[in-house]
Write a structure and sequence with these properties.
Two copies of one chain form a homodimer.
Chain A (H helix, E strand, L loop, with lengths): L4 H28 L6 H19 L2 H12 L5 H18 L3 H23 L4 H25 L3 H9 L5 H28 L12 H15 L6 E5 L5 E4 L2 E6 L6 H20 L15 H15 L3 H15 L8 H8 L16 H17 L7 H13 L25 H20 L3 H5 L5 H10 L9 H9 L6 H12 L1
Parallel strand pairs in A: 1-3
Antiparallel strand pairs in A: 2-3
Helix pairs in contact in A: 1-2, 1-3, 2-5, 3-4, 5-6, 6-7, 8-20, 9-10, 9-12, 10-11, 11-16, 12-13, 14-15, 16-20
C-alpha cells in the first residue's frame, strides 16, 4: 500500500508537537523555579531542542512530502488546514539556516537572563551590548523570512505571532485609536477629578490570601487544576502546554488587585489553550490561532468581565472574606472605581485599558524603527521616555520603569506587541456579540456565573484552533472583521456614560 | 584537514549531554510540581527525548566514527576514557531497537504514575497489569543487553547503574553481610533494651522551620543555591543536572529527623554532581561513575558524618534554636541516641543503617528472581512480606508499607537496589581512610567544619568522574577494592562499643 504523504507528515509534526511541549516546560521552569546560575545551561538546552525541531523541518523528506501532499487533492477540510499550517511552519523554519537558529535561541536566552539583572538594577547600559547583538540576529532573521514569505521584514516577524494581520492593517487600526483615545483619556481624567477618589482597602494583603482568592476565581472560571498550576514569576505568563497549563502572576502586599487581575488575565489564556481540540493537540492546526485571538481571550476575562460592575457585585464579598477590613471599603462602587481607575502608569502591565494602547503603540512604532534600522539601541531610553511623555504626560524615573520593563525585545520577540491591543479590540468585539446574543449574560456575572461567556468562547473561538484565519474566526463569530468601533463604544460606556 | 573521528564523536555526545539535562528537568518537574492530569503528556515528552537520544546513537555515522576512533591510538588518557564511555553508551543504546526504547519509556512513566495511586491506596492489584507489562519489556531489554555486553541478563541491568561490579561479586559481599548483620542487629536490640529510650522532642515541627534548618546545613556542607534547589517530593531524590541540581526531601510534622536526614543524604549526591569536572560536563566520561560511588557520597554525609556524636554536638543547638522546647530534649546523648536508634522498620528509606541492608538484599534477591522468571508479579506481596518477616521479625500491615513502597521497579529500574548497600560499604571505607589520614577530621565536625571530608571527596572521588572504574577509584582513594570490613567495624564501633 502506498503511504499517504499527509499521514507521514503528521508523524513528523507529532514529534515536533511533543518537543514544543518540552520547550513549554523548560521555559516555565526558567521563569519560575530555575536557580540563577543555571541560565547558561538552560540556554544550551533550549537551543538544542530548537535545533532538533529545525533539523526535523529541514529534513529533505519533509520538503518532498509537502510537495507530494500539496499535489494530491485533500477533501477533508481539517486535514487541508493542517497541511497549510505545516507549510507555514516549514517556511518559517527553513528560511533560516541552523547556525542562525542556534545563535538566536542561545543569544535570546542569554540576553533575557541579562535583562533580569539590568532591569533590577535600572541599568540599560548593562544590556546594551547583548541586546545589540540579539537585534542584529533578529534583523537577519527578518530579512531571511521576508524573502521566504514575500513580505516586508517587519511583517515577517508579525507573522510568527499573528499570521492573519499585516503592518498596513495595524497601521490603520492604530491610527484610528490615536484619533479616538487622547480625547477619551483626557475626558476620563477630567471626569475622575469631579468624583471622590476610591478608598484603597488597607493592606498588607497576605500573599497566601491573595493566592487562595485567585485559585477560587480560577476554579469558577473553569480552570482545571488537574491539568494546570498557578505560580509566581517576575512577568505573569501562561506557559506549559495544553493538558499541563502553567499560569503565573505576581503579588504585591500593598495592592491585591494587580495579582488578582494577573490571575484572571492568564486564566483567559489558559482556557483557550485547554479547550483547543484534543484530537489535534500535537499538530500545527491544533494550536492557538495567533496572539490577537489569544490576547482577546485574556482581555475578555480580565477587562470585559472582571472589571465590570456585575463582577464586583459577585467578587467584593469574597474579597472582604479573604482580606477582612471594614465593610465600607468593600462596597461595590468603591471597588469598581478602584479597578477601573484611569491613571497614567509607567508600567504597561499595570496600566488601565484606556492608557494601555499608548504603551503598545509606542513599542510598535519603536520596534518598526529598530527593525528598519532607523533607531539605534543606544537611543531607545530617550525615545521611550519622550514617547511616554507625549502620550501620557509623565516621564519614567528610570529605565527599569521605562524601556526595560518588558521582557519581549530582550528575549528576541519583535512583532508581538501590537497583538496586545489588537486583542483588546477583538475582546470588545466578542463581548459585544455575546451580550447582544445573550441579554442576560452580563447580569449572570453578578451571580458568579461566567458560563455564557466561557461557553461561547469555547464554541466559537477555542474549538476553531487554527482551522481558520484570525479574521475568518472573527467574521464567523461576530459577523465582521477586526475593527475599533466596539472597543470605542466599550470605553465610552464604561468611562464616560 | 582530516577531521578527527574522536572530535566528531564529542559533538554528538555533547548534544546527548544536553538532552540528558532536559530529561533531568522533565523528571524533576514530574515528581515535584507537575499536575496529575499531565502524566500521559509527560510520558510522551520523555519518550520523545529518549527516542531522539536513541536515534542519535543509532546513526550509522556513530558506528563508523567509533570504529575509526578506536583504530587510532589516543595518547590523551582522558579522551581515551571518554571514548570507552561513549562505546558503553553506544552498546547500551544499540542493543535495543527504537520501538522497544519507546515502549519502555512510555510504559515506565505510565506505570510510575499508576504506582503513585496504587501506593496511596495500598492496592497492589491496581498496578499488577501495568507492572507485568513493564516487567516483560524490562526482561526483553535485559535479554538484548546481555547479548550485546556478553553477560547475564541481570548483570546487563546492573551495568546500567553500576558498570564496575557484577552479580557474582555482589553475591559474595551480600553473603558476607548476611553472616555479619543478624548478629549485630540482635546484639544492638539487646543493648538498646538495657539503656533508657531517648525522648522525642515534641512536635509539631513546622515544615518551614525544618526547611530552614535543612537549608542552613546544606550551605554548611557547601551546597550552592545559585546552582540548585531544595523541594519536596514523595520520594526524596537528587535530580536536575550538574549546574542546576534539584534535591528533594519529605517532611513529617511529628518527626523532624527524617526530613533533615533526607536533606543531608541528597546533599551528598548533590556535592558529587556539582564537583564533577566542568570541562567534561556534557561528555559521557564527565558523568558520575555509577550508583555505588553516588550512594557512597550521600551515605558518607548522612551516615558517617551526620549520625556521629560530633555532628550532634554541632547540630543540637541549631535544632533547639529552630524548634524550641526544653533544653534537656536537645542534649547530645538524647539526640544522638534518637538518630542512631535501630528499629525494624517497614520503610526502607526510614530504616537505620543496621537494618537497611536487609531491605536491599531482599529486593536484590526478588528482582534477580523476577528477571530470571522464577517469581511471578502476583507473588511479590507475599514474597516481600515473608522476607521482611524472616529478616526483621515484622510483617508489613499493607502493600503501601510493603512491596509498593519503592518507586524503582515501577519506573522500570532493576539492578539499582544493590548499589544502596554497596554504597554504604564504600562510604565506610572512605570515611575510615579520611579519618586515618586526618586524625582531627572527626573532631572538626563538632565545630560544623566538614571540609576535611568534603574536600577529600571532591579531590579523590568527584574529580575522577568516569575516568576510572568503580574499584579503581576506590583503590586509588582508599588503598583497596570494595569490601565489608570497614562497614563491619563502623557498625561494631557505633552500635556495640
Amino acid at each position: 500500500m502506498v503511504k499517504s504523504p499527509y499521514k507521514e507528515l503528521e508523524k513528523y509534526f507529532r514529534r515536533i508537537g511533543a518537543l514544543n511541549e518540552v520547550l513549554g516546560i523548560l521555559n516555565w521552569d526558567m521563569a519560575v523555579v530555575m536557580p540563577s546560575g543555571a541560565a547558561e545551561n538552560r540556554a544550551r538546552q533550549i537551543a538544542e531542542i530548537n535545533l532538533i525541531i529545525h533539523e526535523i523541518l529541514n529534513e529533505p523528506e519533509i520538503k518532498d512530502l509537502l510537495a507530494e501532499a500539496e499535489s494530491i487533492p485533500i477533501s477533508d477540510k481539517l486535514m487541508k488546514a493542517n497541511l497549510a499550517e505545516m507549510k507555514r511552519m516549514y517556511v518559517h523554519s527553513t528560511a533560516m539556516d541552523a547556525s542562525l537558529v542556534s545563535a538566536l535561541t542561545e543569544t535570546s536566552t542569554n540576553c533575557e537572563m541579562c535583562w533580569r539583572e539590568a532591569r533590577s538594577e535600572n541599568n540599560f547600559s548593562g544590556i546594551k551590548k547583548n541586546f545589540e547583538y540579539l537585534l542584529s540576529l533578529v534583523r537577519e532573521k527578518a530579512a531571511c523570512k521576508a524573502d521566504a514569505l514575500d513580505c516586508s521584514p517587519y511583517d515577517s516577524l508579525i507573522n510568527e505571532f499573528e499570521p492573519g494581520i499585516k503592518q498596513s492593517e495595524i497601521d490603520i487600526l492604530f491610527d484610528d485609536l490615536l484619533r479616538i483615545l487622547p480625547d477619551i483619556y483626557h475626558r476620563t481624567l477630567e471626569r475622575q477629578k469631579r468624583v471622590p477618589s476610591p478608598v484603597h482597602p488597607k493592606g498588607p494583603f497576605s500573599i497566601e490570601s491573595q493566592r487562595k482568592l485567585g485559585v477560587q476565581m480560577m476554579k469558577r472560571l473553569g480552570f482545571d487544576f488537574d491539568h494546570g498550576r498557578l505560580d509566581v514569576s517576575l512577568h505573569p505568563f501562561c506557559g506549559g502546554s495544553p493538558g499541563d497549563i502553567r499560569i503565573t502572576t505576581r503579588y504585591y502586599e500593598d495592592d491585591f488587585t494587580q495579582g488578582l487581575m494577573g490571575v484572571m488575565h492568564e486564566t483567559g489564556h489558559a482556557l483557550y489553550e485547554s479547550n483547543l481540540p484534543k484530537k489535534w493537540r500535537l499538530q500545527p492546526v491544533g494550536q492557538a490561532r495567533g496572539m490577537t485571538i489569544h490576547e482577546s481571550q485574556s482581555l475578555l476575562i480580565e477587562m470585559q468581565i472582571c472589571r465590570s460592575t456585575e463582577f464586583i457585585v459577585f467578587a467584593a464579598p469574597l474579597m472582604r472574606a479573604a482580606f477582612g477590613g471594614h465593610e465600607s471599603l468593600w462596597e461595590v462602587d468603591n471597588i469598581a472605581s478602584l479597578t477601573r481607575r484611569v491613571i497614567p502608569n509607567y508600567i504597561r502591565v499595570d496600566a488601565d485599558e484606556v492608557t494601555y494602547p499608548f504603551h503598545v503603540i509606542l513599542r510598535y512604532e519603536l520596534e518598526k524603527a529598530l527593525i528598519k534600522g532607523d533607531l539605534l539601541v543606544s537611543d531607545i531610553p530617550s525615545a521611550w521616555n519622550s514617547g511616554i511623555k507625549d502620550f501620557l504626560g509623565i516621564t519614567p524615573p528610570d529605565d527599569g520603569k521605562g524601556c526595560l520593563q518588558d521582557i519581549h525585545w530582550f528575549s528576541g520577540a519583535f512583532g508581538y506587541f501590537p497583538t496586545y491591543t489588537l486583542g483588546a479590540l477583538a475582546a470588545a468585539q466578542m463581548a459585544a456579540t455575546i451580550r447582544h446574543q445573550n441579554p442576560d449574560a452580563q447580569e449572570l456575572i453578578s451571580k458568579g456565573d461566567f458560563k455564557v461567556f466561557t461557553d461561547w468562547c469555547a464554541r466559537n473561538i477555542h474549538a476553531k484552533a487554527s482551522f481558520l484565519g484570525t479574521n475568518d474566526i472573527l467574521v464567523e463569530a461576530t459577523g465582521h472583521s477586526l475593527g475599533t468601533s466596539d472597543f470605542h463604544k466599550h470605553l465610552e460606556s464604561r468611562y464616560l456614560a
